[in-house]
Design a protein that fits this description.
alpha+beta, T-fold, single chain, about 30% helix, 7 helices, 2 domains, three-stranded antiparallel β-sheet, 15 strands
């Protein structure tokens, strides 16, 4: 986690830091700056804990143990087991399109805005290492075939938002906003009676809002290709990969933003919407009481 900064403007105390490769912001409508600072620090510590636990780039956490067990079973803690169970549910809901074993495809794909498209041979060589059906999971024990990996990054940031929100909600009655890279959760109203004002980002135009809403209570999550994509022969390749083919999903929206009760639910729906590709609008029509914004 990067250095934490704290500022105050009128009644709002704001803490900013970086975690999970995202700018993170916590805003509290609080009179006591010293107490707000303590609460923001506790929230930042929790974000750092989750990042350290779930990051696939570390060699000292449960993900590394699972991915380097070389075909041996690994017993996981209760929190990790819950996240795996949730991922299994998403796998079923998406007919296998959400798959936490598909992270190995990043060995072939690097979504850096270039035109470097991998070969069919490169992708085909990785497909035997992709597929939840190859994994043995009987909570709390997981066994991956040698060479396979899991990656919980697809739900990690939204999970962190909800965990930090719950932590703060137990520490203060103040109105609050937790925003990790545009995935956010809010509680209000603020003391002046106002709601939180949220902008829906336009892909490729970070300073331009496609829409806005007044949010008192709820969570918002966005999935899209604004920052992770490739351009080749005039075609844009999204980082949203179909684990069955190893290739990006085509024909879907550039971004999907979903409003839900909590950030994990909003993030789940945003990801499943993009995985639906050209059927994104049909997928959303089947969801009840969910507000959404699609940008094509």
């Amino acid at each position: 986690m990067s250095e934490l900064s704290l500022t105050r403007h009128n009644s709002l105390c704001t803490g900013r830091f970086r975690a999970m490769a995202s700018p993170c912001e916590i805003i509290l409508d609080h009179d006591d700056f010293a107490i707000a600072a303590q609460q923001v620090n506790a929230a930042a510590d929790e974000a750092q804990r989750i990042e350290q636990k779930l990051s696939r780039y570390r060699n000292d956490n449960i993900i590394h143990r699972i991915n380097n067990a070389n075909g041996q079973p690994v017993t996981v803690d209760e929190e990790t087991a819950r996240l795996i169970d949730f991922s299994v549910m998403l796998h079923k809901l998406s007919d296998g399109l959400f798959d936490i074993t598909s992270g190995v495809l990043r060995r072939a794909w690097t979504f850096d805005g270039s035109d470097n498209i991998p070969s069919n041979a490169d992708i085909d060589a990785l497909l035997p290492l992709v597929g939840w059906h190859r994994v043995k999971w009987q909570s709390p024990v997981i066994l991956l075939p040698p060479g396979m990996e899991i990656d919980l990054g697809g739900i990690g940031k939204e999970y962190a938002v909800d965990r930090v929100f719950s932590l703060l909600a137990g520490m203060t009655d103040a109105a609050l906003l937790v925003n990790f890279g545009g995935d956010l959760r809010a509680r209000g109203p603020r003391r002046d009676g106002s709601a939180w004002q949220i902008g829906i980002e336009t892909p490729d135009q970070e300073s331009t809002a496609a829409d806005s809403l007044s949010l008192v209570n709820g969570a918002l999550a966005t999935s899209g290709d604004a920052r992770r994509f490739l351009l080749h022969d005039g075609m844009r390749y999204s980082h949203i990969l179909n684990p069955k083919t190893g290739w990006p999903v085509h024909g879907g929206p550039r971004s999907a933003t979903l409003l839900a009760a909590d950030c994990v639910q909003a993030g789940m729906l945003a990801t499943l919407t993009l995985l639906a590709g050209p059927e994104a609008e049909n997928f959303l029509r089947d969801q009840e009481n969910i507000r959404s914004w699609l940008i094509w």
